[in-house]
Write a structure and sequence with these properties.
This protein has a 7-stranded parallel sheet with strand order 3-2-1-4-5-6-7, sandwiched between helices. The longest helix has 29 residues. It has 3 domains: 67 residues, no CATH class; 222 residues, NAD(P)-binding Rossmann-like Domain (Rossmann fold, 3-Layer(aba) Sandwich), CATH 3.40.50.720; 72 residues, no CATH class. It is built from 14 helices and 7 strands. Bound molecules: NADP nicotinamide-adenine-dinucleotide phosphate. The site of NADP nicotinamide-adenine-dinucleotide phosphate (NAP) has 33 residues, from α4, β2, α7 and β5.
Length: 391
């Protein structure tokens, strides 16, 4: 109040409050000392054997109620103790791995799950498995790289279910191949972008108007720890995941006032069908899809801006504070871990070796840990020491 007498200060204060969505008239009341009086209640209860509970014991319930109902135009933000109960959750890539485990997890919490993937039969089986547990699930076969297909998908879903509360952009494609071995493979970069970036953006754009109209919506993007470690041989994959992260940062800022939020989950390595045939991972203590789904559920319920792992954050800090050290470490790792036979242009033995979905690049810590290893199979040993990393 002292500063408000200075010229220009009230105008700046009102401008800032307006940006925060707070009416200027409320400002003087922010330091208002509230006093809750229960004298007349106590008087009325006298002799009944009932007593007034302490305010601390029920203040939280009052707060939750006000938070949910104070803005009558907001589509009931998730503040109850069961935030997913009764919600409609659309999950792409829901026929397998993290997406399927997430579908089960949210259905168990009372949500209606709309499951999307290309393979019709696998998707139908996946939805059946959710229903067999008592969940409510619908399968919608769709290739998210197909613009017309996504348009039809969203129209169908909005007609059949009215709206979508939560979108989980989980369908993804990973390619492991060095840039040098990709000089004649522009399609590697195009197809990772097509699924990981354009497919996800397409769904966000299609659902945004209806989410804004209801003033509620939350988008969870299943990104990767690799956007923080920036591991070699994953240029196509990391670029596509980073693109979605950056798109969502901006979309989140623009749509904040409409109750739309975004979470980027920088997921570590997870034991899914995607990595199953890769020998290196077989003996590793890698999280399973249910553990990954628990992270996605946290992203849905708490709606944080990001979910990172300590290793990812550490890699980012090294990048910020010692960028040349990190580059040197990664380069050493790039040389140690080598290219798969298929990525070198030789005939692949499996889908993973073809560089389609496998993950075996270096972690940022690997060369630091290398000297500690004296036995053969250094990559496997490093992987064991640093579990859960995106390789
Ligand atoms: N596993 C890991 O270690 C790990 C680590 C970090 C991040 N991630 C990310 O987590 C997400 C899920 O990975 P995951 O390991 O669970 O993979 P996954 O088991 O291979 O499952 C991939 C899912 O995506 C669907 N899909 C692929 N392309 C699609 C398209 N064009 N349109 C619609 N659906 C499509 C697949 O079904 P159809 O083939 O039938 O379409 C499948 O349901 C991905 O975004 C991945 O990048 C995984």
């Amino acid at each position: 109040s002292g500063l408000s007498h200075l010229p220009g200060v009230p105008a700046v204060r009102d401008f800032l409050l307006e940006q925060l969505g707070i009416p200027a008239a409320v400002a003087p009341h922010t330091s208002f000392a509230a006093e809750f009086i229960s004298d007349s209640t106590r008087a009325q209860l006298r002799g009944t054997g009932l007593s007034v509970p302490s305010f601390d014991s029920y203040a939280d319930r009052l707060w939750q109620y006000w938070r949910a109902h104070l803005d009558p135009h907001r589509g009931q933000p998730a503040v109850s103790s069961e935030p997913l109960n009764g919600r409609i959750v659309l999950i792409t890539g829901a026929s397998s791995g993290i997406g399927l485990a997430t579908a089960h997890a949210v259905a168990r919490r009372g949500a209606t799950v709309l499951m999307v993937a290309r393979g019709k039969d696998d998707l139908a089986d996946a939805a059946d498995s959710v229903r067999a547990e008592g969940g409510v699930a619908y399968d919608y076969p769709c290739d998210i790289t197909d613009a017309d297909g996504v348009e039809t998908l969203v129209q169908t879903i909005l007609t059949e279910h009215g709206h979508v509360d939560y979108l989980v952009n989980n369908a993804g494609r990973s390619i492991r191949r060095s840039v040098l071995n990709s000089t004649d493979r522009m399609h590697d970069f195009e197809r990772t972008m097509a699924v990981n970036y354009f497919g996800a953006v397409r769904l966000i754009l299609a659902l945004l108007p209806s989410m804004r109209a209801r003033r509620f919506g939350h988008v969870v993007n299943i990104s990767s720890i690799a956007v923080q470690t920036k591991v070699p041989r994953f240029a196509a994959y990391v670029a596509s995941k980073s693109a979605l992260d950056n798109f969502s940062e901006i979309a989140a800022v623009e749509n904040k006032d409409a109750g739309i939020t975004f979470t980027s989950v920088r997921m570590p390595l997870v034991r899914t069908p995607m990595i199953a045939p890769t020998d290196l991972y077989k003996s590793l203590p890698v999280p399973d899809p249910d553990q990954a789904a628990a992270i996605v559920v946290r992203a849905l319920e708490d709606r944080p801006h990001r979910i990172d792992t300590p290793v990812g954050t550490f890699a980012q800090a090294v990048d910020l504070l010692m960028p040349s050290v990190k580059r040197t470490i990664l380069h050493q790792g790039f040389r140690i871990f080598g290219e798969s036979t298929a990525a070198q242009g030789k005939k692949p033995a499996t889908k993973q070796q073809a560089g389609e979905t496998g993950r075996t690049p270096l972690t940022v810590l690997a060369p630091v840990l290398m000297p500690l290893m004296s036995m053969p199979g250094p990559a496997a040993r490093v992987a064991r020491v640093v579990p859960g990393l995106q390789w």
